[in-house]
Amino acid sequence: MAVRADEISSIIRKQLEGLDSSIKQVDVGTVVEVGDGIARVYGLAGVKSSELVEFPGKGPNGTDVLGMALNLEEDTVGVIIMGPYTHIEEGSMVRSTGRIISVPVGGALVGRVVNALGQPIDGKGEIKTDKTRFIERVAPGVITRKSVDTPVQTGIKVIDGTIPIGRGQRELIIGDRQTGKTAIAIDTIINQTGGDMICIYVAIGQKQAQVAQVAGALERAGALAHTIIVSASASDPSPLRYIAPYAGCSMGEEIMENGVTLADGRFIKDAVIIYDDLSKHANAYREVSLLLRRPAGREAYPGDVFYLHSRLLERAARLNEDNGGGSLTALPIIETQANDVSAYIPTNVISITDGQIFLETDLFNAGIRPAVNPGISVSRVGGAAQTAPMKQVAGGIKLALAQYRELAAFAQFGSDLDAATKRQLDRGGRITESLKQPQYSPIPVEKQVISLYAVNNGFADDVPINKVKEFENGLLKFMEDVYPAFLTDIHDNPRKKLSNEQIDQLKKYIGEFKQGFRA
Amino acid sequence: MPTGSAGRRYAQAVFEVAKASNQLDEWAKDLETIQQVLETPEISRRLENPKLTRENKISLLNGILKDEVSQPAFNLATLLVNRSRYMYIGAIASEYKLLVNQLRGIAVAEVTTAVPIDEAEEALIRQKLSEITGKQIVITKKVDPSIIGGLVARVGDTLIDGSVTSRLQTLRKTLA
What we know:
The complex is a heterodimer. By secondary structure, chain A is of the alpha/beta class. In chain A, 38% of the residues lie in helices and 19% in strands. Chain A has helices spanning 5-17, 157-162, 181-191, 208-220, 238-258, 278-291, 305-313, 344-352, 361-365, 388-394, 397-411, 419-435, 445-456, 468-482, 484-492, 500-518, and strands spanning 25-35, 38-43, 51-55, 65-72, 76-82, 93-100, 102-104, 113-114, 132-134, 172-175, 198-204, 227-232, 260-261, 267-268, 270-276, 317-318, 327-335, 355-359, 378-379. In chain A, strand 16 (317-318) and strand 17 (327-335) form a beta hairpin. In chain A, helix 5 (238-258) packs across helix 6 (278-291) and helix 12 (419-435) packs antiparallel against helix 13 (445-456). The mean pLDDT of chain A is 91. The model of chain B has no long low-confidence stretch (mean pLDDT 88). Chain B starts with a helix and ends with a helix. Classes of the chains: A alpha/beta, B alpha+beta. At the A-B interface, helix 1 and strand 1 of A face strand 4 and helix 8 of B. Strand 1 of chain A pairs antiparallel with strand 4 (158-163) of chain B.
């Protein structure tokens, strides 16, 4: 269809007529000092805390640069600059906008990569949404909440089996560098493909290549379509890194409170948000605070660094039916140095969250991947966030693993073991083996139930340890090919325990498979 | 510009003394004189010289200022030198001016136009601005051709921007 010139000019005319040409009074100030992403501004008497201010014409190509008023002092206002600040100089004018800092929210963001201000950075064009939300908001109150009762399936057996995560929970993923923290988050996102959750991945202070890698991995797995990536990379100024998690959280809150309708027409009101990682977020906030000359405390973090994370994580919630019944699950990530969880930020975040998943370098190097230490990892929400069949089959696993580790340490010294001890060691070794799982291959919950049942009930005891994985994969393939109805039944009835008949059936199926496996 | 709290405290004290003795304008003149003297390079260099004793510095002031300003104003000058606060005199003077203006309901407006304005226009602007602010307006004029047309008035922290440039910018933003 040809574009008609008169249509275009009529649109432009309409825009011109709608142009607000009235003269407004605005609060202004003058830059006294600028540097390191911080400006000290004289004037701006009427500015509110965390209000957006503008540095007109100071961006690249004469665009306006935004800032946020953070320190309101007697003479001056401390402004953090959210963008390039090299063109701002002493004496530059600053204009208040009367707007509290907010980001665009809604369905249009799903499938996109945005910066901390919600502007697209993936080159896929403009984000068309007319909804915005303040990035700082008070967390939902007690009256609107409900206890956690629905699981977030991560697709990772060791987590879904022993450290279940519920919708609305805050579960910390903690470990040294290179222990697979992000991998757990990515697998969780991939496992939501075709499910009923939107995922938000907030990358704070990471290399841009790493963010691109994550986006690429998600795209290949077809998981980008239900994901929002908020990126404040290492090269972004610290103010952006500081606000990025709050921006992502606001996008998640919109999904929790109002739901979103996806392009394919599905209505979704559950979201999971991953903060990768909050150690770097605390560093960004420390940078901002020190530049604003706020007093430094322990490890040079400012005094309100606990509040920084508590007010963020407290916004994760499960709303009750009167409030729409949506949820926002938070999976913060913390990087420790040499496994030291008693540093300031790790202890803070451990105390805020409802449990933690510990990842350890030793386990990782021993080939146990995901390198989760099930002994010290906990989920304080616990069984309430597991499907009934899962709860039934996974019950003994944590105990068996704990006993195994204790015995394994002991058994190193002597070779004379009684039969019972040996049996426990064998069982533990097989469970550990079965909990290993390669990256990017989450397993649906019904298959997890089958394999956990088989291993935990001794069906793999006569399989050599190095064949356990083969046995398990074979069993799952067999079930999928021969008895798919059994799997569908478990999948479709998450609140129904396995009946005795079902268990007998399952035993029979496993027996059938084992005959073929031996042959 | 920020004057710092020290300047503000001294100015407040001076202002109260001046108000009580009803000598607001005399004090303003005296402060200006003191500022002029203290900020003369030869004198400020001597004041900063650590080898000179306080008595030396005071007697220097005695010789220059004693007959120029009133006794209380001279006392202020010696106080400032005694406490090594003479560098704040500029801040004190400008802060004092603000306080006096505040008392008299006067606001200073910086009016920028693209072309010079005549008396009648200035009077009109003054009248309009005092309607908006509810204060008597003293205008300082500035000519800046880059605003193309219209005028920009700044009273304290408030900016009233009616320039052609800013309207063009709004237009560009709406069409973008």
